[in-house]
Amino acid sequence: MEAQYQELAKHVGLEGSERIPRLFKMLASLDEAELLLAMPGDVPGLAEKLNRPQQEIAESVQALYHRGLAFPNHKTDPPTYRMPRTPIQFHDATILWPEAPRELLDLWHEWDQVEWPDVTRFMAELMPRSPMRVLPVGVTVQADSHILAQEDVNEVIKNAKRLAVTKCPCRMTSKNCDHTVEACLQVNRGADYAINRGTGRELTQEEALDLLRQTEKEGLVHCTVNHKSIDSVICNCCPCCCSFLEVAIKYGNNVVEPSRFQARVDEDLCSGCEICLERCPFGAIEMKSQDGREDGVSAILADKCLGCGVCRVTCPEEAISLVEIRDPDYVPEK
After folding, report:
1. Residue 43 in this model has a pLDDT that exceeds 60
2. Is the residue at 122 inside a domain?
3. How far is the C-alpha of 92 from the C-alpha of 186, rounded, in Å?
4. Per-residue pLDDT at 290 exceeds 50
5. Lowest mean per-residue pLDDT among 213-227, 234-248, 255-269, 286-300
6. Same structural domain for residues 55 and 25?
7. Helix (H) and strand (E) counts for the chain?
8. Which terminal residue of the chain has fewer beta carbons within 10 Å of its beta carbon, N or C?
9. Domain range for residue 36?
10. 126 assigned to some structural domain
11. Mean pLDDT over the full length of the chain
């Protein structure tokens, strides 16, 4: 493998990976790889640095942007371009390249299955907090709980300046289920990027709220970046495809933080129908016997519950509520 692609893998924190250099090679020519390695920079500066014509550099930068390999910073004039900073950014942006060949998606899926578990284990050891967090479903929590604006998906949507939806990169590569593929809700900066790049379509607030309700009915889990500001994405994740949920459930890698809430069952209301048992993606519900009840009632396993509220959505008896168990400052500022 050419040294340039090995160096690109190093730049996204994956030095020594077997598959990441191959992915870069599928996405960029050698000239484009050298351009990526010369970043950050604006078009005139990159042209001077590489001793190439500005027009050639401008065209190459746009092609790399379209493939998800170059990211513009419009705070400078002309814009400054950089390559992906993290494996996650590299993964999601390049999978959403509209012309991505199936070979690229399949190689990403192979990387997800073979290399990603070790990467997330290493991340969990180094990072003080998980990179992602669960958002509770958009239903009313227990009356004496305090739900903050940044954890109320309805309020996030209502306060957003711009909204868009993209396909889910994880479901595009894994194809392990028939859940909605166009399900990643982009917020503000994330929406601007998706619309400008052509990887997403703009939504009204009502359309975004409808999408959230649909994903909740499907049993998908709302997740976002683990800090208070939601300015990029609300993912709607399934445990069979999601890169984060899958390794958290399968390997116990601490890469998804629970919400500040936990499910609670009102045993007097519970009919023992077991719908919640089937829907919980984390195995956090079991049936327990109760005097005088042949079918028993649902019980929450506190150490497994991530407070997503998926169980709450379809409970026919409305026997499940979400209760606050963590302080408001549990979600980090940055």
Report:
1. yes
2. no
3. 13
4. yes
5. 286-300
6. yes
7. 15, 13
8. C
9. 3-114
10. no
11. 92
Q: What is the CATH number of the domain that holds 323?
A: 3.30.70.20
β-strand pairing of 132-135 with 256-257: parallel
Direct distance between the N- and C-terminal alpha carbons of the chain, in angstroms, rounded to an integer = 38
- Cα gap 173→118, rounded to integer Å: 19
CA dist 288 and 163 (Å) reads: 43
Query: β-pairing, 200-202 with 182-187?
Result: unpaired
| Number of domains the chain contains | 2
User: Token digits for 277?
Assistant: 């048992």
Contact status, residue 256 vs residue 213, Cβ threshold 8 Å: no
> In this structure, is residue 120 part of a structural domain?
no
Give the contacts of 101 (CB within 8 A, at least 6 positions apart): 26
* CA–CA separation, 270 and 143 (whole Å): 19
Q: In this structure, how many other beta carbons lie within 10 angstroms of the beta carbon of residue 118?
A: 13
Give the helix ranges, DSSP H, for the chain. Answer: 3-11, 20-27, 30-38, 43-50, 54-67, 87-95, 102-114, 116-126, 153-159, 169-174, 189-197, 205-218, 243-251, 275-279, 310-313
Q: For residues 174 and 292, what is the distance between their CA atoms, to the nearest angstrom?
A: 45
